[in-house]
Amino acid sequence: MEAQTLTYIFVGLSFALYIGIAIASRAKSTNDFYVAGKGVNPVANGMATAADWMSAASFLSMAGLIAFLGRDGSVYLMGWTGGYVLLALLLAPYLRKYGKYTVPDFIGERYYSNVARVVAVICLIFISFTYIAGQMRGVGIVFSRFLEVEIEMGVIIGMGIVFIYAVLGGMKGITYTQVAQYCVMIFAYLVPAIFLSIMLTGNPIPQLGFGDKLLNSDIYLIDKLDKTIIDLGFSPYTEYSKSLIDIFCITAALMFGTAGLPHVIVRFFTVPNMQAARRSAGYALVFIAILYTTAPAVASFARLNFIDSVQNTSYEDAPDWFKNWENIGLISWMDKNQDGKMQYSSGSPFVESRPIFTDKRGSLGQRLLENEANTSSSNEVYLDRDIIVLANPEIANLPIWVIALVAAGGLAAALSTAAGLLLVISSSISHDLMKQTFMPQITEKKELLYARLAAGITILLAGILGIFPPAFVAQVVAFAFGLAASTLFPVLFMGIFSKKTTKEAAIGGMLTGLVFTFSYIVFFKFISPELNNSDHWLLGISPEGIGVIGMIFNFLVMLLITKSTKSPPESVINLVETIRRP
Amino acid sequence: MTFWQKNLILLSCLLFFWFLCSFGFGILFSEYISFIKIGGFELGFWFSQQGSIYVFIILIFTYSYLVERLERKEKK
Asked: What whole-number distance in Å separates Cα of residue A541 and Cα of residue A468?
């Protein structure tokens, strides 16, 4: 059977499964819609959290990113897992004990102020929207490569599926589809990883193969990789190339940002009690770790494999996958020394950052480029890092059903995260803005209707962002984490661990974190990108890591304002005591 | 000591290990422990790409176990 037919079957089956689950678990009340009736088993919730958390970026891009960043890629591995420790120890159990529906709900009530609630909603919407656009784009890429439909069509199909189960089922439908999506996704990730590990090291466990010797040789895989890329002019795979302070701050920003992400926190509102919330965070991290400890192994295998199959190979003998991805425009080759062979080394092959293709083909069939050659590097090959995971099964010559499986897995990753984000956006609109702030007299039935309407509109907007992606989608990801770390995390933390923090302090703290982090990122990413290097950064901290400094400012402002304002009312102090009690 | 104070001490101890294994072994003192090797891994590299994640999992379950014990005592 052809790869494409098989992909259709795999993707079709997985979609049918998601829709089936959605119909079986329709939401009947706002309690079902917002928090799945608070009756989800902690293990199932752990799995759903893992699917919710691991986005198209984790599934498709992370291994590729690490393959090319090497040791610097550790910031993502530690940053995106360490946040769960903070979540399980400091936030999740207490927020569950509080027992309402959304993150702004807690902020609004703990800080006895609807202004604080609305500021929290603004932060939440900003954080979640930057994320969801990326998910829709991921859906589009998978569709266009494997099912050969236009990216636009792919996005529309993806929107349709998410619409059915998010609008019908709310949190309840989303939870159980996410459980199914986790299974699809992790299976799809592990199969090629195990194959690759056996091929290279003979060890079937990728986490061990990563530290093992190469097959029929006495050399460790990592040492070989280090040596190979150093010979090609890259910096060593196992050493940091960024400054330690920057590495430190990026890792911390990702950790605190993770702990402050509303769509992750909300997942812990769905379990029966605070003990279950803690354990559930542990299970979630176990399920996440299965992918996150495999990813760096896959990264090292892929880097080695890629160099092996490309370096000094003549274009005529280039493998099929090379030409397939070249046709899509994510790989290119510019024969700078006219020897018909592909040379790969450090540096960009051309002056521009991306290839600009002409309609013409060269004498060997390669796509010709309009780019100006970069004479300071002998590198001839351009590779988009996002394709590593998708291309891996092809690079390693794995059977075609593995390729089909990976496509279904990538879609599962993108759809599950999109659905989770959609839910926090729509519930913060229908619950926090409508019910709690502007239209307190509406009935539960009406609120549920508004929640569904808001979900529908959000999907449409997200789809439009997916079809017409703003050029800066990739860059705004730094926003989401930086903002979550510098706005929501400190306010939630102080709301639980300090009885004295006042509403003025919370509002001032959130606004300080928001304005500082926002302006720093906007300045270096959009206003003066030419200054975006360590000479101009504050203390040598890049925009990706600046959220930590924003967070520190937020804490300082809160402490200062609390000292000079009237202490919170008795009822709030009682609330804090209640949520701390087991 | 009240339940809450005991809880705060427990949290601080566990967060110390959280910091040590990720920011400590994985980043700040990575260089100083890299003479130790497990398989092909230098210890610092292993902590930053594998080990810290395992430690995180252990920390969450340890906390969950210990604090539930505290909670049971408190309820009595």
From this structure: 31
